[in-house]
Amino acid sequence: MSAHSPQARMEARWGAMFAAPALLLILTILLAPVAVLIALSVTDYRLGAIAVRLVGLDNYAAMLADPVFQRSLRNTLLYVAFVLPAAVFGGLGIALLVHARIRTRTVYEVIYFLPVTSTLVAMATVWQFMLHPALGPVTPLALSLGFGRIDLLNDPDLALATLALIGIWQLIGFNMVLFLAGLSAIPRELYEAAALDGARYGADRFLRVTWPMLGPTTMFVTVTSTVTAFKVFDTVVVLTRGGPLGSTETLLYILYLEGFQYFRMGYAAAMTVVLLVFLAGLSILQARVIEPRVHYA
Amino acid sequence: MRESGGVRPGRVLGGIAAHAVLATGAVVMLAPFAWMLLTSIRPPEEVFGAVFDPIPSRFAGLENYGQALGASNLPRAMLNGVIVCCGILAVQLLTAIPAAYALARLRFRGREPLFGLVLFGLCIPIQVPALPLYIALADLRLLDTYFALMMPFFLTVFGLFLFRQSFRTYPEEILQAARLDGMSEFEIVWRLATPAALPAIAAFSVFSVVAHWNDLYWPLIVVTSSERATPALGILAFRDAETGGNYGALMAAAALITGPMIAGFLLARRAFVRGITMTGVR
Amino acid sequence: MLSSIAKSFGRNRVLEDVDLAIEPGEFLTLVGPSGCGKSTLLRIIAGLEGADRGSVAIGGRMVDRLPPDQRDVAMVFQSYALYPHMTVAGNIATPLEMRRLTLAERLPLIRLLSPRRPRVMRGIMAEVRAVAETLQIAHLLDRKPAQLSGGQRQRVALGRAMVRRPRVFLMDEPLSNLDAALRVHMRSELAELHARLGITFIYVTHDQVEAMTMSSRVALMDHGRVLQLGTPADLYDRPATLAVARFIGSPPINVLEGEADGAGGVRIDGVRLPIAHGLPAGTRITAGIRPEALHPAPGRYERPVLRARLKRAENLGAEWVLHATLTGAGEAPLVVRITAAEHDAALQAGLLGEEIALSVTPSGTHLFGADGARLPVRQREAVGAR
Predict the structure, then answer these.
(1) Which end of chain A offers a freer environment for a tag, N or C, measured as fewer CB atoms within 10 Å?
(2) Which pLDDT tens digit goes with each residue over C49-66?
(3) Of chain B residues 91-130, which have a CB less than 8 A from chain A?
């Protein structure tokens, strides 16, 4: 069909018509806001202000010098560092164990995935109750195990770790499902060839077959877990509101405060740009660097 | 993988150890749910000391759930959840399906750049355009409305990407036969291509509904009144109003809010899992 | 080596009382239609599946309790099962690494602590290179499987098996993933390999051409049983059952129903074939006639011929294949295979009109009783002229 035949023109018209609404949405909800965001970040705009001034990179400079921002960045990185290994390797470990079960497999799959589908705000409320020093079961449990009398959410040293544990709780089932899909895709013949070659121990089978074949899945799980961990927000709002002593103030929470409580839009925009760079960078890393290096059988 | 040689003692031990680990993890996974449900049927006077006496002596479920439903804006919040999720999903499907079809099967000017924009959008989380959108809505005096709640999510680059993937696998010959029969392209999209892509659409719908029912960030920003509260806001408000108060009712409220998601998951497990882990299908 | 193997999957009896004694150094093919149990049998020999009943012995040693890697066997899978993340060299080296390095020496970081590891690895790599050169893939040692063609991957799989110097080579339909031309080439290569190595090959395929051309002996299986074990010639010239005769041979054998007549012969469609069988008159007999045992003959003839209507003639260059149907009751189809020269002569003699007469050569005819087993034949006469 030539490019200008009646059919081709019809097709082009239909195509444009079908795509138009989505294109409109992309322009208004994606492109325009991102452009405005970048523009805002170099102003000192406050919501409702009449006069707006261009301030160049002052917002960014202020951000880098701001101890609150630095602390939130540190907290977020700590949080991610805590959550990531546990969520990825925990998910992998659980998946390996569940994959080998025959009769109880569905039961475990359901149980571990339950936290993923639930409403985190609601479950965080439950966790708050469970962690209550006088009312919840966690404190007496810790006491009986030999730990001292601890109040997890009110202890500046422990609060972030507690949030991280809840984050792991919510994430591990998701990773498990992804790993299970990856495990199911490994051809059985590879394991048989390994058995014939002498791989009798589980460690041999894991090193020679399972781990290499899970490469793409592992990469994917790592990136999505990192992105999810970066965006931690719900638990902070419900459980600690950034306290105690700012030990659980994370990037997104600070951003929320700046933009929607203090209405310092310009400053918040700059923070959003930083967040964007982090998150978009991770996604691009996965698409460009990691996926092409994946080997296919 | 079966091996010859029969069942060795080592294998049995390994199986037991695996179950031990899995079961311990399962207990941790289930603990909050169990606690939530138990507390929700516990009378208020038994909340203190519940740790030592897990089973409540009398069934107080009716009181607690009744209070959760009656003395708060929970029913309103849940209704809003339904409205918002349905509204978002409807617009998402109505805009994304035709556009994805066009991207997949029709040649038109700007197709490649458009798909490039879709890929670009996949890297941008919702928190990024949130700020400018909020300002725009504030200027238009549209804050605290259903429209404000739904608007940013009308666009789903994820849906576009996913449906395009699905439409690409539809056999070209059927489309050509339909065109020869005189079907308009519009009909083709909705009567031929869409039914074939139903698994992907169903999975996506699950993903969308769950994500927006559970969402906190955007509703927290745009909603200030209790009439427009979404489920997440509903439980948050209840908690803030009940500090130190009725934990039984609070847990009942939590159960009510997250209940539909859990129920849906248990009933349509496969669709749920496929939908929520869809982000893996690149 | 295999005695009384029985195996079921659930309610599915896959193997039933299989007894096979395999000679050392021979090339034995297990052939049969899909689902006949041949792959399962191979996997039981390898140790990847366990038999419900019966035992396996290799080289006089009972191996039922031994894991696959201790049975002194090597296997080439249908999909080759190469480790995709390792180079060709790594793939071939794996069995040797498993054998010569301890578990600790194989773990990623800990293995750096072993002093003897570099030396062992050097020895291994030398052997790998030697094997690769034998298979002419030495130039591919640094490539990954994804970068290789089908034929090259197969050689790597062979190399990985050969490097173990096994006592038995097991192959599960290794040629079915290759295109036709490559398959023919690899058939002769495998046969040469067998001749060179001199070890026992057990080969599984559903392709009877492979079975017939490569093996020293063939075991034809169906529904979990061994129907016949013998040389390719045995199976072709002296099929034990009707099923065997049907499976071997292309185009497939012609099957005609008839009955015994009192004077020691078979009546098919009114035509009497004087092939002595010793059964009483009236017994149902099935006759299998090879396509090349039928020849066009003049109609008026003193010997009995089969009369048929010619439907179609296919010209294959060096041969012609005629498709006809028997006139008379039954209208059974007949397939005839003749050389081009014979065809041209018959055409000239006017023998290939709409109606043709076909003479039957006794050596290409086999009689089977009601149970499918072959009937012994006492004497044969040529029927028709040839």
Answers:
(1) N
(2) 877 777 788 877 788 888
(3) 94-96, 98-99, 101-103, 106-111, 114, 117-125, 127-130
Residue C19: both structure tokens together: 């007894």
Round to whole Å and give the CA distance between A250 and A266: 19
Band (pLDDT 50/70/90 cuts) for residue B53 is low
pLDDT band of residue B97 (cuts 50, 70, 90) is: very high
The span from the CA of C140 to the CA of C82, in Å, is: 14
Boundaries of every domain in chain C? 2-242, 252-368
Tell me which residue of A266, A255, A210, A206 sits closest to A230, measured CA to CA.
Answer: A255
pTM for the whole thing?
0.82
Indicate if B187 and B261 belong to the same structural domain: yes
Together in a domain, B54 and B82 = no
CATH number 1.10.10.10 given to C252-368: no
Q: Are residues B214 and B255 in the same domain?
A: yes
For B176, the domain range is 69-280
Domain annotation covers residue B91:
yes
What's B81's domain CATH number? Answer: 1.10.3720.10
Q: What is the rounded distance in angstroms from the CA atom of residue C377 to the CA atom of residue C366?
A: 9
The alpha helices in C198-256, defined as continuous H runs, are 208-214, 232-237, 242-247
- CB within 8 A of B275, min separation 6: which ones? B202, B203, B204, B205, B206, B207, B210
Report the mean per-residue pLDDT for chain C: 80
Do B188 and B89 belong together in one domain? yes
The span from the CA of B166 to the CA of B163, in Å, is: 5
CA angle C211–C213–C216, rounded 5-degree value: 75
Of B88, B84, B80, the C-alpha closest to B227 is B80
Are A47 and B3 a contacting pair at CB < 8 A? no
Does position C382 have pLDDT exceeding 70, yes or no?
no
Tokens, residue C6: 């029985």
**Residue B240: inside a domain, yes or no?**
yes
CB contact under 8 A, C66 and B4: yes
Distance CA C352, CA C322 (A): 10
* Angle between helix B74-105 and B231-241 (nearest 10): 150
- Fold assignment, C2-242: Rossmann fold (3.40.50)
Cα–Cα distance measured from residue A7 to residue A12, given in angstroms and rounded to the nearest whole number:
9
Kindly state whether residue B93 falls inside one of the protein's structural domains.
Answer: yes
Domain A61-293's class?
A: mainly alpha
Q: Which of residues 101-130 of C touch A (CB under 8 A)?
A: 103, 106-108
pLDDT 10s digits, B225-238: 888 999 999 888 88
Domain ranges of chain A: 61-293
- Whether residue B18 is found in the same domain as residue B129: no
Token pair in block for residue A185 = 């895709």
Task: Give the confidence band of C376 by pLDDT, cuts at 50, 70, 90.
Answer: low
Average pLDDT over residues A74-95: 93
